[in-house]
Amino acid sequence: MTQVLTRPLLEIKNLNVDYGLGDEAVHAVRDVSLTIHRGEVVGLAGESGSGKSTLAYGVTRLLPPPGVVAGGSVTYHPPTGEPFDVLSLSHAELRKFRWAETSIVFQGAMNSLNPVHKVDVQMMDAIKAHEPQLSKAARLDRAKEMLRLVGISEDRLDAYPHQLSGGMRQRVMIGMALALEPQLVIMDEPTTALDVVMQRQILGQLVELRERLGFSVLFITHDLSLLVEFSDRIAIMYGGRIVEEAPSADIYRDPLHPYSVGLLRSFPALRGDRRELTGIPGSPPDLRGMPSGCAFHPRCPKRFEPCDKEIPVLGKPDDHVGPARTVACWLHPVTAG
Amino acid sequence: ACGDSPNEKAKNSGAKTTVLTVGMPNGPLTENENPFLTTSAGAKDGYRWVVYEPLMMWNPVKPADPMKPWLATKAEWNKDYTSVKVTIRDNAEWSDGQKLTADDVAFTYKLVRDNEALNSGGVPITDATVSGADVTITFKSPQFVSQQKAIAQIPIVPKHVWEKVSDPKSEVNKNPIGSGPYTIKSFTPQTTTLVARDKGYWQALPQVKELRYTSYNDNNAQTTALANGECEWSFVFIPNVKTVFIDKDAANHKIWAPPVLGIHGLYINTTKAPFNDPKLRVAMGMVINRDDIFTTAEAGYFHPLVKSVTGLPSPAGDAYISDEYKGKDYKVDVEGAKTLLASAGYKLDGNTLKDPSGKPVTLTLTDPAGWSDYQTSLEIVKANLATIGINATVDKANQDAWFKNVEAGQFDAAFRWTEGGSTPYDIYRTVMDGDQLKPIGTASPAGNFGRFDSKDATAALRAYAAATDDAARKTALATLQKIFVEQAPMIPVGADNIGGAFSTKNWTGWPDDANPYGAAQPTQANALDVILHLKPSA
Amino acid sequence: MTATPSSIEQVIPGQGAMAQPDVTPAGKKAKRRRFRFIANGKATTGLVILAIYVLFAIIGPWVAPFDPDKITSDVLQAPSAKHWFGTSHLGQDIFSQILAGTRSVVMVGAIAGIVATVLSILVGVTAGYLGGVIDEILSVLSNVFLVIPGLLLIIIICTSLPRVNDLTVALVIGLTSWSWGSRVLRAQTLSLRQRDYVEASRATGEKTWRIIFFEILPNLTAIIASGFVGTVIFAVLSEITLAFIGISSVSSWNWGTILFWAQGQQALAQGAWWWFVPAGLAIAILGTALSLVNFGIDEFVSPRLRTSGHGPKRTSTGEKVRMKVGFTPVIRPVEPTGTIDMKDGATR
Amino acid sequence: MTLSESPAAPVGEVVLEAEGLTKHFPVRRKLSDIFTGKRAVVHAVDDVSLTLRRGRVTALVGESGSGKSTVARLFAQLYPRTAGDLRLHGETTKVHGGRRFRDYVSRVQLIFQDPFGSLNPVHTVRYHLTRALKIHGNAGKNAEELEAALAALLTRVAMTPPERYIDKFPHELSGGQRQRVAIARALGADPEALLADEPVSMLDVSIRLGILNLLRDLKERLNLAILYITHDIASARYFADETMVMYAGRMVEGGDSESVTQNPAHPYTRLLIESAPDPDRIAGIADATAKDRGNGEPPSLIRPPSGCRFHPRCPHAMKRCTVDLPPRLEVGGEPGHWAACWLYDAETVAKEGVGSAADPSIPTPPALHLPEEAR
Amino acid sequence: MRFLLQRLAFYLFTAWAAITINFFIPRMIPGDPISSFLARNQGAVSADAIQSLRVLFGLDQKQSLWQQYLDYWGQLFHGDLGLSFTFFPSTVSEVIGQSLPWTIGLVGITTVISFMVGTTLGIGAGWRRGTWIDGLLPATTFLSSIPYFWLGLVAIAVFTGPGSYFPSSGGYTPGLVPALDQYFIGSAINHSVLPAVTILLSSMSGWILGMRNMMVTVSAEDYITVAHAKGLSERRVAFSYAARNALLPNVSAFALSLGFIVGGTLLVEIVFSYPGVGFQLFQAVGAHDYPLMQGIFLVITISVLVANLLADVAYLLLDPRTRKAG
Ligand SMILES: Nc1ncnc2c1ncn2[C@@H]1O[C@H](COP(=O)(O)OP(=O)(O)OP(=O)(O)O)[C@@H](O)[C@H]1O
Ligand SMILES: Nc1ncnc2c1ncn2[C@@H]1O[C@H](COP(=O)(O)OP(=O)(O)OP(=O)(O)O)[C@@H](O)[C@H]1O
Ligand SMILES: [Mg+2]
Ligand SMILES: [Mg+2]
């Protein structure tokens, strides 16, 4: 997208996330830096197990045990006031911060709703926790409004989650995520369980809402074609690291990292010529025994001398003149500084 | 609001000296005051005998003593004891104010005659006729050996109440009208409270103004209540009675356990070789350590020692011991037993006794698992028998099966009781009655479990029961004792006791060795006599 | 693990299985799984104690210092160097009685556990897999057994048998206490039956009995195991209770018999605590050991109970970290600088 | 090992043929139904006709819940069918269990939708494959032959070297590897037809591709007839010779894959294709295509809409669509390409006019490329 | 609804089967009420009583088992449970009627308390895994592994005695008349403390454990993480989200355990001499009191079945997922 996106909203710097402690730790996210600007949709792609969800949850500190954030900082820039580090917040501060500033739509909305409470209770719960001064009626109004916003008739407030279809539940979750008008919405594969028709409906609504409300989105999926269509910028993860990051059109047209290339060559196109699908040979790395050097090198068709020795840094490649893109690959070396 | 609560008084009456707490380990009861039924609450707790009264008061501790006049001022038996003429006192009144008459007595006896279910003593009544204050009751057979059942254990009920009862055996009689000094104040499954009448009783009113009968669930609860002083009078087996009960309040906690004419001992199946040999049985009797059983299994009191070789306990049986056996007591005599056995052809081979045919003598002692005193006794018997080389094993049987097997004669040896009564007749009858002799496999519920086959004994039993004079009785009894001693159809160990555990903290006047005026057991027919003897302690 | 029993029939067999979630081990190593079970501290403690009991069950009667039946003159003695647990009213050595009684207890527990487990598998799994009329019939059957109060049924059966020995007691307990397990197994089987792999093996052409025994049963192992442990506890308690209330007429020693004698002689009221306490403790420790094993099984079945273990953990640098759902701990090796470099970022 | 690399049977021979296949699942009744005698059923599959040929892949696409898996299970005879005919080499078959069922499954094998669920977690790869071989008599005579057969199976699904995988438990394998084991298991029966129920839906793009290539390779080498079920229409285009589209339990369109995906005829197929993410359409999200189409909810299968089941969501719906069930109508120009839609009945269109009965809340559709005659 | 009807039919059938078994089992026991009567009165009752008892209990009339069975059902349909042998001629209904309230009062209330306390502790233990509250588990397990009678007897030995607040036996102070006044109720409560506490100690661990495991399971669910993500307060998440879901299986277990109240009290009542129905049943078994046994079995059967039905209904009510729309 062409708007000038300069004001950062969330700056992730050198984030490390581990599962487990000490020697048993699995380093699921390594040294990841990523900035999300106001009003921007950032896509996060990468194959299963590359650490996308871990990154998202790590930022919000919602990792399931034994996950621990093992380093780095996450700086949040509120619309007014001083920026602060999310990772240093106390539990109480964190509770206040959550949902009001950043909300999350989880992978699999099926399980995100409490099966024993009606939709209205769950929506109003969130509102009440953050705006306790609001009357019950006002809260109910807000809940209704949110449902309408996501295209569900307000009488469904009275329904239990199991009485809604998967798509409706997903929309309820999105509505709930927007109820407090947060600055950032993190969406973890919100549509993988749905079929394409439903997926498009929901994403369409989301885009529309974003234009109206102006929040930023961190959108996670491994479906690159979806991301290319929907996001402004895409970061591609492999083996716990971001290996490439660029505006989506650039990535689609001209992927730099061989892994990005492989990803793009893995899904069949519906329209146009039938192109050759090569895929990515080999299997994903084991997080416990990461290959030395570039984690992708054992599967990389273009690997050469330094790949298995040194880890390439993520940075603006010297050989590329376009704007704002970074890559971590020895094919596109980065000069420090 | 609680002013009219029935419990307020009970709680506030601090003056404890008017109340006597009595207990029995019967479990929760239901409101059933039918005085004839052993299943009634009154019978289980014993208070039927303070509401209803018999004609005469019999002292089981001294069974040969003459009975005390009670509702009858006198009882005269005919010579062969088939009929009795009783004179009813004229000052007795029912608790509803009506007078007690000879008609009531005759009615009661006919009621019992006509309803077999009410006749728990099995008294063969034929008729009861009234003439003035006298009632003549006639019986099918001589009642010498069961006089007490005939006139001291049938509660007299008011005709004007019971003639209206259509089915006396299923009458629960919730509002009992009796001639005794107490009436029921309240009934709960756990406790029945009785209060003394304030007028109309034919003799001096008791000093115990209120009786509380509590039914505890089991012996342990009962014992604990006794030890704690919650309960002042009961009849229960208390192991190690000194520590468990007496020492808790040595000054007041008392046990008095006089024996009656009913004994416990080891029945031996006399049909099984080699135990069909009387010598072997006698030898076994010689080595059993009754003192051990008495102190260890029976806590030193519960089944008083039977010392006399005739099996008759002292003092209840003293009067009946024949001259031949007077002063002859059991004592452990292992050497004597060995000699006796050797003379009869048995050989002691190392630790094993071999019978004349050369087979080792072994036997199984059985009793139901739950009867811990019997089980302990058997353990001791087992150890005792080992001293003469008899290898016994103890089998903890199932109660039902045990009953069936013992009655059917399918056992080697078992501890069991005999009937008890006013004469030694019941003891000997239970052990040796040829009329009860059934083939192995057929039940003989009334006795002779060991299948003891002696025509002489049977004849002597019949002669004793039907005798018309003391001399004949004495001869018959001597014969019975001789057979019992020489053939040892059963090895007596202890007697039934008719005593109880009580506390003198609040009440004195209990029967004791010095003044054995009655049985100290709350469920006996003479319980009322005991209560009437009680005085507040100083 | 259900119907957590109200009171006295303390252990309902299979109680431990109620709350068990899915049995599919989500991506955990199966082989290591087995060792993990052992590695579980609780389970190990339980197993070690059990092993000691089993050892005494085997050698107990031989190593007992005295003949447990032997009547001596050392009546009602407090524990001493000679009589470790004191003596009974007949001067019998209580320590020897406990040792001699272990065998019966362990045997009855094991046999009853096996019988009940086998029955519950037969009934529960069959009903769950086959469904339909067979299911209805078997369900009624197990419900009937559930409805009849177990301990009382056992009492009734034991009183009605002419001869009762350890084996009969064990069989009676086993035959009357399978219904809970069968219910749990049936419910599990019902859900397993709908698993794709069961359907898939059918589509491969497997026969019904093979599906039941080779596809479904192995997946129930953990539930079966904890049901077994539960039944064993129940059986031991029942056996002891039966002996205690004088129902079972076992001629050999078991701890219930000891308690029966102690109670019959009012050991506690007499102050002879040594007569009462050791047997009770022996039972309680055995029960606890079995429960510990059960915990082990539970935790090993449910990955969720397993993950993150207990209590605070330590990092390699020795910091204490408490895992908490919803609030991921942050451990940063270096304190982040207070100032944030605004120009630095991924957009460069 | 009897798996033959090049069977004699000619490519294109009909292996399995379904006609009017119907499956209704009974649903729990309400009390009122007991009295009225009504029997509620889920119309999971209605009147489906489908032919599987040797050496050809037939794709079945459709949204979630449209009945695709049910069709597969009906083909595998795991469910008894409510109505219709299923012919194996022209012979009607109806088997429940026992020998005849085993004979059937040795020729028609199903690969389950979920690679995580269809392998028993307690058994190794070896067990799964050995059973498949043994049941169908392909295990050879002795241990060596079995070992060889196992190795051959694994090699066939590109799990090499076999020793590395043979003794693994399912959870030790990646999703793609599990899916391969499931395929290998199906191949162990040496079937003629393979029913692959969404073999790739849960997998990652790169793994997905591997499996599809594998299936294609098997089709070519073993001359298998394959039913490929998916809701990813793009993969159908890539992989299948023929594509059928299902909607709410009915077939709505069919034809060779290229025509169906490039010239979708049925409005539902179009919706499906429009909805598929398309990287070439960058930033076009908020355009008309993304607009909510009707209420977007699939219809109830207990009380399916009358007439064409898609009519409540269809922007082109005509009156006739709400009443009459459309038959298979030839879509102009392309032989074998048909659609069950009244739009292709020139008469109806002429009489009623396209979209005459459409729900007004449905936004105007983009230009419709109807065949000439229909305009 | 259909589901309930189906369950009802199922339970009726189960009830029939159980009652039939209850009828036949006691009759399989060798022995008869009379020899049990003699056994209990070793020597104190003479053999002469045998005949009178035989007549009394109606055992002199021979009837085929089948005829007895038919008669039994006939009586049942008239609500007549017959006459007890032990308490002849009191009716079985009366015996049960006077003991049932005690059982329900003591064990019912303790079951409820045990469930509530156990569940609350379980919530704590599950929610704060690894804190001190986890240490409760081994302790309660140990207590629940002790045979109940042992615990009860030790409690009696330790806590009762002259001068102690706790009475050693019974349901109320002897001499009080059951009435709803302060004395009686106070006494009843006083008598129930020790049995209640021992029941609690030995039964609580099941609830704690069950609830804890469910809490642990549930707290890994996505919706809990979502609740945290929503910034809800700790309490709200713990109770309204986690515990509310974790409770479901335990509630039905609880309903089931209510059914075991009547049948499960045997030992408490023996040990504490509590006047309840379990002890009556125990006695009835010993006394071969068939009518009483059957009556109590009937009560147990019905209460377990009703509890089962309750469990079904409770689940239906508590878990919206099982409630079918419409
Ligand atoms: N509890 C855990 N313990 C150890 N490793 C874990 C744990 N949870 C996740 N991982 C590992 O962390 C890595 C990253 O997982 P994550 O869920 O972030 O992947 P993802 O990119 O979101 O994948 P997907 O697309 O499948 O959701 C994976 O390799 C996974 O195996
Ligand atoms: N056993 C069953 N009982 C009742 N209804 C069923 C059953 N199996 C499937 N259905 C219903 O039949 C319809 C078709 O289901 P099916 O599984 O065939 O769909 P699908 O196209 O495979 O969907 P997906 O893409 O999600 O796998 C659905 O509405 C489903 O709810
Ligand atoms: Mg993820
Ligand atoms: Mg499907």
TrEMBL record, chain A:
Molecular-function annotations in GO: ATP binding
Span of domain ABC transporter: 12-264
PROSITE patterns reported in the protein's UniProt record: ABC_TRANSPORTER_1, ABC_TRANSPORTER_2
Domain of life, per lineage: Bacteria
Keywords recorded for this protein, A-Z: ATP-binding, Nucleotide-binding, Transport
InterPro entries reported in the protein's UniProt record: AAA+_ATPase, ABC_transporter-like_ATP-bd, ABC_transporter-like_CS, Oligopep_ABC_C, P-loop_NTPase
Keyword Nucleotide-binding: yes
The keyword Ion transport is assigned to this record: no
CDD domains, per database record: ABC_NikE_OppD_transporters
Pfam families (alphabetical): ABC_tran, oligo_HPY
NCBIfam families in UniProt: oligo_HPY
Annotated protein name in UniProt: ABC transporter ATP-binding protein
UniProtKB/TrEMBL annotation, chain C:
Parts of the chain that traverse the membrane: 43-64, 105-130, 137-162, 211-236, 242-261, 273-297
Alphabetically ordered keywords of this record: Cell membrane, Membrane, Transmembrane, Transmembrane helix, Transport
Gene3D superfamilies: MetI-like
Domain ABC transmembrane type-1: 106-294
Topology in the lipid bilayer: Multi-pass membrane protein
SUPFAM superfamilies xrefs: MetI-like
UniProt key word Lipid biosynthesis: no
CDD domains in the cross-refs: TM_PBP2
Signal peptide extent: none
Localization: Cell membrane
InterPro entries per UniProt: BP-dependent_transpt_permease, MetI-like, MetI-like_sf, OppC_N
Record's protein name: ABC transporter permease
Automatic annotation (TrEMBL), chain D:
Region (Disordered): 354-375
Residue ranges of every copy of the ABC transporter domain listed in the record: 29-273
Nucleotide-binding is among the record's keywords: yes
GO MF annotation terms: ATP binding
Domain of life: Bacteria
Gene3D superfamilies for the chain: P-loop containing nucleotide triphosphate hydrolases
Database matches in InterPro entries: AAA+_ATPase, ABC_transp_ATP-bind, ABC_transporter-like_ATP-bd, ABC_transporter-like_CS, Oligopep_ABC_C, P-loop_NTPase
SMART domains according to UniProt: AAA
Keywords: ATP-binding, Nucleotide-binding, Transport
Keyword Transport: yes
PANTHER family on file: TRANSPORT ATP-BINDING PROTEIN
Descriptive protein name: ABC transporter ATP-binding protein
Species this protein is from: Dactylosporangium darangshiense
Automatic annotation (TrEMBL), chain E:
Xref: SUPFAM superfamilies: MetI-like
Subcellular location per the Swiss-Prot or TrEMBL entry: Cell membrane; Membrane
Domain ABC transmembrane type-1: residue ranges: 100-311
TM helices/strands, residue ranges: 102-127, 148-168, 188-209, 253-275, 295-318
Alphabetical UniProt keywords: Membrane, Transmembrane, Transmembrane helix, Transport
Keyword Transport: yes
Pfam families on file: BPD_transp_1
Recorded superkingdom: Bacteria
Membrane topology note: Multi-pass membrane protein
CDD domains associated with the record: TM_PBP2
InterPro entries tied to this protein: MetI-like, MetI-like_sf
Name of this chain's protein: ABC transporter permease
